Amino acid sequence: MISVILAVMVSIILFFLLVMYYDCHRFVTVTYDIESEKITGEYTFVLLSDLHNKTFGEKNEKLLTQIKALSPDAVLVAGDMLTAFDNAEKCKVAAELMKELAADYPVYYGMGNHEHRIGLCQGEFREIYDAYIEKLYQFGIEPLINESVYLPSANINISGLQVDRCYYRKVRKYPMPEGYMERLLGAPRKDSLQILIAHNPDYFTDYAKWGADLTVSGHVHGGLMRLPFLGGVMSPKLTLFPAYDGGRYEQDRSVMIVSRGLGTHTLPIRIFNPGELAVLRLHPVSHRQI
Q1: 3-state secondary structure at position 278
Q2: Eight-state DSSP code of residue 167
Q3: Is the dihedral of CA 38, 40, 41, 43 positive or negative?
Q4: Helix, strand, or coil here: 177?
């Protein structure tokens, strides 16, 4: 009897290990359709988040091939393309991907907590950060660090939010004070579709209150492991079954798309939770709000 129980336990463990290995080395494409009366034409973004120096094929050729097949108008980056405290060689993965993307598409890059973290360092890691940011500028990518850019062809305004590190604390959610986002970004554009790149989805209520029509986030990695009906199991701040683990969320007239990300860090766990390449198809609609 004991041998049977052990055999079953070993089989279960092997099954989950195989699923984890499989899901850590693949990605799926998920499409979101969003309607708005503010935009002036059809527009498609590809959304990338939480690559963490991961490669899908040599120099991310599988990822780049899929993006090309989708024919986006532009690329949104929701942060954590690299991993804090990786060496310079590993960080070349993110830089090479950005170079290839920027050659074909406008790239609007919002920072994650990993970019922000190494940007605050001194010595070797600060040098890695400075070199990475310099390369982005060389590729024609201007990081949106509490800055905005307006796309007149579609009447879209994109703002990239970089918050203080206290908003990434473990376990406890640090409240965002009144007027904090206005001090960082100024007022949103109300006459255009206001897109907000905000890496941490936990503050969706604050983003909606600020005036974001559409927020794109990542950070949660889909909750590491996903369970039927329950969704993601754990967030990076070590809370069980996070409210925003991946997918589409709505509050009043504000929409948030949370990417489940592409890579992993620290704990290389993805179970029933492959990487995600998100596609945002924006459609103009008269007399309707998103």
Answers
A1: strand
A2: G
A3: negative
A4: coil
Alpha helix stretches (DSSP H) within 120-238: 124-138, 180-185, 204-210
**55 vs 191: CA distance, rounded Å:** 39
Rounded Cα distance between 218 and 196, Å, is: 12
Per-residue pLDDT tens over the stretch 46-89? 999 999 999 999 999 999 999 999 999 999 999 999 999 999 99
Helices (H), the chain: 2-24, 61-70, 88-102, 113-119, 124-138, 180-185, 204-210
- The H or E element that residue 109 is part of is strand 107-109
Both structure tokens of 249:
């969320």
- What is the structure's pLDDT at 255? 98
Place of tokens 């969320």: 249
Provide, for the chain, the percentages of residues in helix, strand and coil under a 3-state DSSP scheme, each rounded to the nearest 5.
35, 25, 40
Determine the average pLDDT of the residues in 100-117: 97
